[in-house]
Write a structure and sequence with these properties.
13% strand; single chain; alpha+beta; 13 helices
Length: 428
């Protein structure tokens, strides 16, 4: 079995619950010359599925072979391969592979490939309690199977529809390696010649973020990239050479952070990152940044600005299939959230609302809720009080958030900053 390790240990571990959400990873702008960064977007995964363990048809029968690990019997265990060495403790960072099964299902609902183990810090991570207890009971080299109660896993409610209520599960875990977690030394940013030390720390954080991204632990990746960015901004620079290195690293980190914010549906933060890239003159000449900026703008309903960036990206990378596909998504999203009829049926009188307007609001909100490609929509300005009240009432019925705003400013320095009158934002 190939147990090749990631190049660096992860600091904060992996939230196995979040691994249940999957998605494709995009890679465009191949002219961006950074091998490690482009590795994030490599979606040529091995097609051969390789995981440990086997299905269990009856948990009740299977439990008879297991012994409790904790005093409440919520985690039960059977050792399949003996391990050795010292017991684990909170100061360990471990590498492991696993597969998780529901009762009487032939395929695992979650697993790692044998040649791509996960690396977790036992002190600071997002592991579910049952998995944490299971790992801490193991020795290096050990492979064991665990029955995990819903109480220490996904809870009484579960996560419908993917995880049923009160869902017990079986996990096969193999503990490959354990090391003492490196302790991070404090940096004195006022000391001379600090940049070399900061540069090293930033490269480590960047690599950690890349590894987190590959395992779809986007929250941890965001933390790593943000920490690295903050360190670079705080660091004293001695000369122009260090400034150039700092700027190059910031651009790389900002683009990674932009991708992660889009993955976690935080488009407003993505747009903030794009302002920084624009300040560094690395937005309008970078296909990857333009592409992900357009995605973020599309998610908040800024369709014209998104289209402008995609057209610019196509100028830099003609016939790019991913950009063309995003343009198609943008057009469909714009059409489904068309507000032209809403404007046509609005009434200037502050106390009157007509049925045609209500119908258009109902259709618009229905389309907004059903469209997975948008999470924020700004309605037209100059609605009267009755119309705004109806929109708010409808949002409450449809479990949507809405917010009345007084001003809005466009998103980059190439566009004139013009305040817009009071209007309503809808949020998923």
């Amino acid at each position: 079995m190939d147990t090749k390790e990631p190049p660096l240990a992860l600091e904060n571990g992996l939230d196995l619950g979040k691994l249940l959400t999957t998605g494709s990873v995009l890679h465009i702008n191949e002219d961006y010359d950074d091998a490690e960064y482009n590795a994030i977007f490599d979606n040529n995964e091995d097609k051969i599925i390789d995981y440990i363990g086997k299905p269990v048809s009856s948990f009740e029968e299977f439990e008879k072979e297991l012994k409790p690990v904790d005093e409440n019997g919520l985690v039960k265990k059977k050792i399949l391969e003996e391990g050795g060495g010292l017991p684990l403790h909170k100061g360990c960072t471990v590498s492991l592979i696993f597969s998780g099964y529901w009762e009487n299902e032939t395929e695992p609902f979650d697993y790692t490939k044998s040649h791509k183990p996960l690396v977790v810090n036992l002190n600071e991570n997002g592991l579910l309690p049952g998995i944490q207890i299971a790992i801490e009971s193991m020795l290096v080299g050990e492979m064991a199977v665990f029955h995990l109660s819903y109480v220490v896993m996904y809870g009484q409610m579960g996560v419908p529809p993917r995880i049923k209520p009160k869902a017990d599960c079986i996990f096969y875990i193999k503990l490959i390696k354990s090391i003492n977690t490196p302790k991070e030394g404090k940096l004195d940013f006022s000391e001379p010649n600090i940049f070399d030390r900061v540069h090293h720390e930033v490269k480590v954080l960047y690599s950690l973020g890349v590894t987190f991204h590959k395992t779809k632990n986007f929250t941890a990746a965001i933390q790593s990239f943000r920490k690295a960015i903050n360190m670079l901004h705080r660091c004293r620079l001695a000369d122009e050479k260090e400034e150039n290195i700092q700027e190059k690293l910031l651009i790389k980190l900002y683009i990674n952070l932009l991708v992660c914010y889009n993955e976690t549906k935080q488009p407003l933060k993505s747009c903030t990152i794009c302002k920084e890239l624009n300040r560094l003159n690395s937005l309008w000449n970078n296909v990857k940044a333009l592409f992900h900026n357009a995605k973020a703008l599309r998610m908040i309903g800024q369709f014209d600005a998104a289209q402008k960036r995609l057209k610019r990206a196509l100028q830099l990378s003609p016939d790019n299939e991913k950009i063309i596909a995003e343009l198609t998504i943008l057009t469909k999203t714009r059409d489904s959230c068309n507000q032209a009829k809403l404007v046509e049926n609005k009434i200037l009188d502050s106390n009157i609302i007509n049925d045609a307007f209500k119908t258009e609001v109902d259709n618009l909100i229905k389309n907004f809720k059903e469209n997975v490609n948008i999470c924020k929509l700004t309605l037209p300005c100059n609605l009267n009080a009755a119309e705004m009240d109806y929109i708010k009432e409808t949002c409450v019925k449809e479990n949507l958030f809405c917010n009345q705003i007084q001003k809005e400013y466009l998103l980059d320095k190439e566009e004139e900053q013009v305040p817009i009158e009071s209007k309503i934002d809808l949020f998923i």
